[in-house]
Write a structure and sequence with these properties.
The structure is a single chain. This protein is mostly helical and about 180 residues long. The protein has 7 helices and no strands. Helix 6 runs antiparallel to helix 7 (about 150-175). The longest helix has about 35 residues, at about 105-135. The mean pLDDT is about 90.
């Protein structure tokens, strides 16, 4: 009587002659490194480890995965930088561990956030004036949400597009260094 084989046994039997090329092994190793790096970055951002511990663990994983190109790590950090969030922890890593000059990146993010806040304030003021004039609604309890205003979205998208393009250009400049 023949033996019943598990799915795993069948797969292993069919693929035992397959091997990875050197390029595929390197690519697989870099993908694994990127996953471990993302986990390490998340631990740092969640304040589970300090900057010094991050640096030590980064050194350990770069040795373990035989990664000598800092651009992979720098790109991993830069990919997490967003215009609409607090990026101080990520920028601190770039400055202190990789000795990169991120002044232009900081200024760009700061300018974006200031421009957004300026437009939010202008929209809130306009909405309050409109409510007062059209509906006689006023007072300190009136706090209009500018994001619900139909005119807000195109302004927000235009500002975001302008600064996103500049952000990507700044990131590329840092990678090229």
């Amino acid at each position: 009587m023949s033996e019943i084989k598990s799915t795993l046994d069948l797969v292993m039997e069919k693929t035992k002659h397959l091997t990875l090329s050197k390029a595929e092994k390197i690519e697989q190793q870099q993908d694994q490194f990127k996953r471990v790096l993302n986990g390490l970055l998340q631990k740092y951002l969640d304040n589970m480890i300090e900057k010094e511990a991050f640096g030590k663990e980064l050194t350990a994983i770069t040795k373990r995965y035989d990664v000598s190109d800092n651009n992979i790590v720098i790109r991993g950090i830069l990919d997490r930088i967003r215009l609409d969030q607090n990026n101080s922890a990520l920028l601190s890593l770039l400055k202190e561990i990789f000795r990169l000059n991120v002044i232009n990146l900081e200024a760009l993010i700061d300018n974006y956030q200031k421009e957004i806040q300026t437009h939010i304030q202008q929209t809130v003021t306009q909405l309050k004036e409109s409510l007062t004039e059209n509906y006689a609604i006023s007072g300190t309890a009136v706090v209009p949400d500018p994001k619900l205003n139909s005119q807000w979205e195109p302004i927000f998208l235009a500002i975001g597009k302008k600064y996103s393009d500049q952000l990507e250009a700044e990131k590329n400049i840092l990678i090229a260094l």
